[in-house]
Amino acid sequence: MTATPSEEPGHGGSAIPGRRLTLLPLRAEHAGEMAAVLSDPALYSFIGGEPPTAGALRARYERMAAGSPDPGVTWRNWVIRLDAEDCLTGTVQATVTGDVAEIAWIVGTPWQRRGIAHEAARAMTGWLSRSGVRTVVAHVHPDHTASAAVAEGLGLAPTDRWQDGEVRWEGPTPQPF
Domain segments of the chain: what residues? Predict the structure, then answer.
């Protein structure tokens, strides 16, 4: 399936299938299930913060769905549904400016070490490629080997640039698989 960009500001439009998962456009209604997915404090050891409440997530998701206040920036946000288990496992997101996308991902602790982050990020970057994005950027904490492996698996390479204690990785948009 080839997803096409949606005119809705805060997400990617159609669902994006992967091999084992589906990326669903982020909705405020996902907040309850996602609060449980994101409830392990260990998830925040590299990115900071603490587990959000369902109410806080709902408010955040509503803001994200409204879209970027900057007309030159588009926000694309998806939740990751693991098809075999019919449950949400995390999120992927992209902030698109022109033909450059800054991407991020997070997968709940029970679903880590299963390749879900990599598969979801590949599905997202394939969609971004079809949407005209040519360069992908990710910021990864230097000690977060799992996220570095996802970035490397996408064909990104670390640069000598840093932002908020994280290394900037970048490269051409990976082609869809």
Answer: 16-172
Task: Indicate the pTM of the whole model.
Answer: 0.91
Encoded amino acid at 123, one letter:
A
Torsion sign across C-alpha atoms 117, 25, 155, 40? negative
CA distance 41 to 16: 29
> Among 60, 63, 75, which residue's Cα sits nearest to residue 11?
75
> Contact at 8 Å (CB) between 67 and 80?
no
CATH placement of domain 16-172: 3.40.630.30
100 within 8 A of 135, measured Cβ to Cβ = yes
In this structure, are strands 87-97 and 100-107 parallel, antiparallel, or unpaired? antiparallel
Instruction: Give me the pLDDT at residue 14, please.
Output: 81
